[in-house]
Backbone:
């Protein structure tokens, strides 16, 4: 793949509405900023190569290459990616209580990793009202405040530049598949910068099929309910076709058909449902209330899970075959649909990653 | 008294002419190329009442009051100002004047300092006002002086039209005596209502006044037939007659001289161009078979002489007419001797070229390394650069495709890359906020883009207030950003009503922009545009708010007399931190922010400070993401 620059990022992704807000391009330079859950290009930049493009998970990042170099393991055609072990899991009896989406396994693992000093801070998604925002959690309470699914896209990785200057040496990151893909690419130092340092020591990926556009979705909800009283949201596994919103004193249900209108178009070209490049991936488990599916992918992830089980931070059990089959089917379908969409958009064409024309680039020379 | 010959700018010669004529009241609004007239009068003639008025219409009214009260008066403005004054101008032309009153209108052919290319002469015809056009510096003085006499004789306003190259170039001028006459101002109104000197002053009854106006014009035409300001130079029966006026007179003379055509070409220079001296013109045209009109902006003389020729076919006879309408003279832009030479070459099929293309190439090459490759931009330390940087950034962050309606001032440069191409509409003074008021009412048709208008402090008083009132009353949604740099900066720091000094530097009551806006009901706040983050945060919030918001970005112009040469900070580059092209910033300081005080040193791969140009405003220290630009207090 050719590593290009901001002009091509705009043309191939941002202008086409294919950005899924991982945030990996943002806040690295004075030109691309994450603001109010949007990626904004402030002034024209005429660089022919940039980290903004190199990090973007929507411009044909070769999963195979990242997988090989980063994890020293080959990419698998298995639709849920390479894994060591797949189990069902939930928070253990020694873990803290919180307002968890399902079983609290992600929060418990992060808190455990902090206590074991595998990480000294974690980059998570918190909320302001119902709007998701990136949060750098440095203690247990901050981690617990971030518990729960958000369903709304938020540029979590836009905090990476700030974190690299913040003194955090061992960072844990929890993210959606696009965020974990971009994180993996970031960790490759694709532009081979001398001063690059990889601070990430743990990545926990979430299962995801799509995320919602913050502005449109919040606008929709605010017309139908008092958004300030929203406590949590949940989309139960099929066949339930609804979004359940828990309010202070009641519950409201919205048909999923309506909600899907606000999903980000860029999610349709995503081929990764289970965050294949993480150390550990976590997602829902059909038919077992209070449990999650947990995919252990790296040795580091395996060690963490084993220790967390030993010390009762999480509890695991074997995953029923039916659930495993359904997971493969779901992940496989996502790959097929993504490939089809990418083909339609010309993203699989040989000349897709071609440099943009220099015409129209704004350059004001100071003094030559 | 001994007559003195002095080197004078055209505008100074006009001032001298007015003083010699005994002018008592002068009012204007600053605008290039007219500004030096009121400036010079206010500094040199303390016994004359001189005023920078709030706008051109008011200036014309203030001057007219002088005339009505029996004092010779002068109104001064650039051409677009005549458009502003046009409403009163039409009525004044009809009502008539008393003591001599002259409107000096300065046109700007080629729009050197304007954003249009208007021709005041058309107003003379449209409104029936006698028109004079000086053709050299001496005439600038003498015609100004004579214009007052003419006005008094006709009881009509007289327009004296100058152009940039006459107003701003200099020539030798022999001065005359100054008329010293003590006059008591008194407005008489008890006489017969139709008596121009003692009755009420008005345009009614229109039928009577309109007929009277035409009589005055006819009288003017007769006077013009023998005016010394219309000159004929050249052979008795020339092969070609150039008919010209204004500074084009000098271009025509030079062209004829360069081409050695003195024996073939005659020049009829008209100093009185409305109404045209038809008998004089007939007589001159009869001498030749070919006529070339040399004039700037509109084919005013050309068209009107053709109308005359249609009225008197036997006297004019069949002639070959060359000019703008035949393509021999460019329809737009400024003229110069080369362009006149070019058209003469065409008519006489001469070989000599005005200038060869190889000469131009050579000249361009010689100049290549003499000037920095830089877009037109704001001065170093200009508050507008900081303001537009933030406005541009905020509109992008807001992410609703918001835009900025521009206005007239130095900040009009906001339309260019040097102003980050922030301005998307640019028209007349005050029009930015008027347009914004309109855009802000289009939400019922689905428009969801936020709109900002920018307006200077002087422009605010000139014509920014009515559209703001309009926006408030009609519940429009807009954010008006008043770029308050504490003076009419572009034209040379003339005072305006927001300042505590008057036209001559005397103390004057100031009108507080913030209080005015608040009194209108606009949510108003003030910020220093040099504080980028604070301005950004305020503006981001204002864009989310409905209704009419005003943000006054107040920071005095760097070139203002109070601030010029004073540095707040010494700006230094931390060369350890500046990584040049290796930084992810892609030279935002020299490539985008582009203050001329910042230099890109390609060899060192670092940004440097041009200590001579840098004014030490410190804004660039907030731009650098690597914190490599440091400010030390002076």
Residues:
């Amino acid at each position: 793949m050719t590593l290009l620059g901001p002009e091509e990022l705009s043309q191939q992704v941002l202008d086409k509405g294919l950005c899924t807000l991982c945030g990996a391009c943002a806040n690295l330079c004075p030109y691309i900023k994450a603001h109010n859950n949007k990626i904004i290009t402030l002034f024209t930049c005429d660089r022919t190569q940039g980290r903004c493009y190199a990090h973007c998970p929507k411009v044909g990042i070769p999963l195979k290459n990242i997988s090989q170099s980063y994890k020293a393991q080959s990419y698998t055609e298995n639709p849920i990616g390479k894994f060591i072990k797949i189990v069902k899991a939930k928070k253990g009896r020694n873990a803290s209580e919180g307002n968890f989406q399902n079983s609290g396994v992600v929060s418990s693992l992060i808190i455990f990793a902090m206590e074991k000093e595998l990480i000294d801070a974690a980059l998570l998604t918190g909320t302001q009202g119902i709007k998701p925002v990136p949060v750098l959690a440095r203690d247990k309470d901050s981690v617990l405040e971030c518990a729960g699914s958000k369903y709304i896209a938020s540029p979590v990785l836009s905090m990476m530049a700030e974190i690299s200057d913040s003194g955090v040496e061992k960072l844990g990151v929890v993210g959606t598949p696009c965020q974990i893909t971009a994180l993996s690419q970031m960790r490759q130092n694709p532009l081979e910068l001398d001063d690059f340092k990889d601070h990430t020591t743990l990545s926990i990926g979430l299962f995801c099929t799509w995320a919602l556009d913050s502005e449109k979705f919040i606008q929709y909800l605010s017309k139908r309910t008092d958004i300030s009283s929203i406590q949590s949201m949940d989309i139960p596994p099929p066949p339930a076709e609804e979004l359940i919103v828990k309010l202070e004193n009641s519950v409201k249900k919205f048909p999923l058909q309506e909600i899907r209108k606000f999903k980000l178009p860029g999610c349709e070209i995503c081929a990764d449902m289970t965050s294949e490049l993480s150390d550990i991936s976590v997602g829902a488990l059909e038919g077992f209330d209070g449990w999650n599916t947990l995919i252990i992918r790296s040795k580091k992830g395996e060690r963490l899970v084993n220790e967390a089980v030993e010390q009762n931070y999480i509890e695991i059990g074997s995953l029923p075959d039916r659930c495993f089959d359904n997971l493969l089917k779901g992940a496989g379908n996502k790959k097929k649909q993504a490939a089809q969409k990418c083909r339609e958009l010309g993203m699989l064409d040989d000349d897709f990653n071609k440099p943009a024309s220099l015409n129209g680039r704004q350059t004001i020379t100071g003094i030559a | 008294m001994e007559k003195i010959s002095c080197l004078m700018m055209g505008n100074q010669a006009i001032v001298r002419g007015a003083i010699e004529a005994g002018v008592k009241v002068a009012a204007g609004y600053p605008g290039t190329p007219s500004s030096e007239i009121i400036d010079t009068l206010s500094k040199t003639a303390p016994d004359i009442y001189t005023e920078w008025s709030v706008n051109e219409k008011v200036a014309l009214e203030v001057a007219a009051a002088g005339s009505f009260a029996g004092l010779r008066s002068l109104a001064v403005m650039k051409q677009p100002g005549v458009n502003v004054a046009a409403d009163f101008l039409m009525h004044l032309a009809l009502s008539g004047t008393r003591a001599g009153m002259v409107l000096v209108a300065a046109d700007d052919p080629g729009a050197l300092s304007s954003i249009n290319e208007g021709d005041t002469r058309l107003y003379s015809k449209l409104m029936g006002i006698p028109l004079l056009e000086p053709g050299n510096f001496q005439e600038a003085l003498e015609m100004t002086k004579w214009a007052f006499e003419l006005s008094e004789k006709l009881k009509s306003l007289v327009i004296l039209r100058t152009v940039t190259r006459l107003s701003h170039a200099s020539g030798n001028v022999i001065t005359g005596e100054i008329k010293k006459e003590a006059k008591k101002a008194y407005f008489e109104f008890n006489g017969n209502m139709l008596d121009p000197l003692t009755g009420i002053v008005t345009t009614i009854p229109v039928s009577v006044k309109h007929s009277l106006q035409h009589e005055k014009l006819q009288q003017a035409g007769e006077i013009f037939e023998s005016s010394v300001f219309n000159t004929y130079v050249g052979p008795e029966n020339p092969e070609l007659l150039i008919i010209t006026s204004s500074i084009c007179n000098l271009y025509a003379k030079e062209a004829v001289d360069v081409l050695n055509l003195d024996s073939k070409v005659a020049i009829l220079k008209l100093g009185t161009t409305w109404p045209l001296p038809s008998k004089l013109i007939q007589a001159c045209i009869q001498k030749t078979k070919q006529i070339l009109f040399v004039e700037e902006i509109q084919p005013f003389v050309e068209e009107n002489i053709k109308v005359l020729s249609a009225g008197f076919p036997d006297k004019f006879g069949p002639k070959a007419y060359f000019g703008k309408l035949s393509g021999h003279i460019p329809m737009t832009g400024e003229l110069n001797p080369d362009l006149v030479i070019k058209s003469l070459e065409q008519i006489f099929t001469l070989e000599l070229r005005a200038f060869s293309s190889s000469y131009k190439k050579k000249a361009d090459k010689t100049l290549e390394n003499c000037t920095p490759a830089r877009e037109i931009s704001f001065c170093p330390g200009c508050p507008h650069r900081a303001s537009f940087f933030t406005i541009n950034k905020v509109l992008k962050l807001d992410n609703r495709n918001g835009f900025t309606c521009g206005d007239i001032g130095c900040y009009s440069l906001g339309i260019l890359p040097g102003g980050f191409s922030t301005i998307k509409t640019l028209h007349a003074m005050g029009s930015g906020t008027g347009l914004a008021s309109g855009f802000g009412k289009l939400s019922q048709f689905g428009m969801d883009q936020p709109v900002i208008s920018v307006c200077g402090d002087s422009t605010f008083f000139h014509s920014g207030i009515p559209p703001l009132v309009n926006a408030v009353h009609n519940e429009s949604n807009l954010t008006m950003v008043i770029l308050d740099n504490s003076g009419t900066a572009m034209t040379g720091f003339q005072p305006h009503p927001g300042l505590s000094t008057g036209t001559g530097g005397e103390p004057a009551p100031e009108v507080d922009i913030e209080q005015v806006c608040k009194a209108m009901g606009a949510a108003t706040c003030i910020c220093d545009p040099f504080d980028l983050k604070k301005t950004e945060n305020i503006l981001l919030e204002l864009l989310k708010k409905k209704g009419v918001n005003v943000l006054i970005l107040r920071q005095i112009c760097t070139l203002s007399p109070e601030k010029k040469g004073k540095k707040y900070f010494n700006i230094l580059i931390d060369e350890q931190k500046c990584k040049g092209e290796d930084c992810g910033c892609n030279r935002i300081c020299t490539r985008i922010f582009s203050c001329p005080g910042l230099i890109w040193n390609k060899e060192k791969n670092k940004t440097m400070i041009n200590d001579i140009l840098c004014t030490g405003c410190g804004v660039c220290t907030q731009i650098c993401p690597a914190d490599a630009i440091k400010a030390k207090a002076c």
